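Hey,

Quick one before I head out. I ran the complex with guanosine-5'-monophosphate overnight. Inputs first:
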Amino acid sequence: MQLLEDRIRRDGKVRGTDILKVDSFLNHQIDVELLNALGREWRRLFDGCGVNKILTIEASGIGLACIAAQYFNCPVVFAKKSQTKNIAGDVYTTKVESFTHGRVYDVIVSKDFLCSDDRVLIIDDFLANGAALEGLIRLIGQAGAVLVGAGIAVEKAFQPGGSRLRQQGIRVESLARIKSMDEKTGIVFC
Ligand code: 5GP
């Protein structure tokens, strides 16, 4: 998506070889107009798929998911990173390794908010190694819900998550796909 690629080129900051900072428009300060455009595009891509729920993971996916949900007229559920060791039986739960923090979290979704009638679209800001997405997919599996696909803002295509998920037959629609990036030479899109 040209609009997002242009914005990443203009305001994204590459850190090292594998971290892209998008704090000025996506992750800290949020450009709501831009998010609107992303939401509209996911709606166009997943039109007719019967999405009745959007699932994301806290924290950075929530803003994107809420704006997108206005185009699908459906609720957003976000998986919570659980602090407590004793996880009650009324939640679906799995472990997710955080790419940016390098630690493993228990993530939970209440059984009240995801069920076998649901047709779920996952929305998230980044796709890197795929751990976050795979965790959300496991939660959808536990609920017996249908995974329609995943809408991702920025896929770092040089990391393995996207191709692994597509190989499993999962529909992944990334609005900007980065082939390579470097602090000095900048960002190359696919
Ligand atoms: P994965 O689980 O696919 O390895 O990483 C996805 C998660 O890590 C996303 O939810 C996102 O929050 C975070 N993440 C991964 N790569 C980046 C990055 O380059 N920049 C930022 N800001 N977050 C990232």
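The longest strand covers residues 146-156.

Talk tomorrow,
K.
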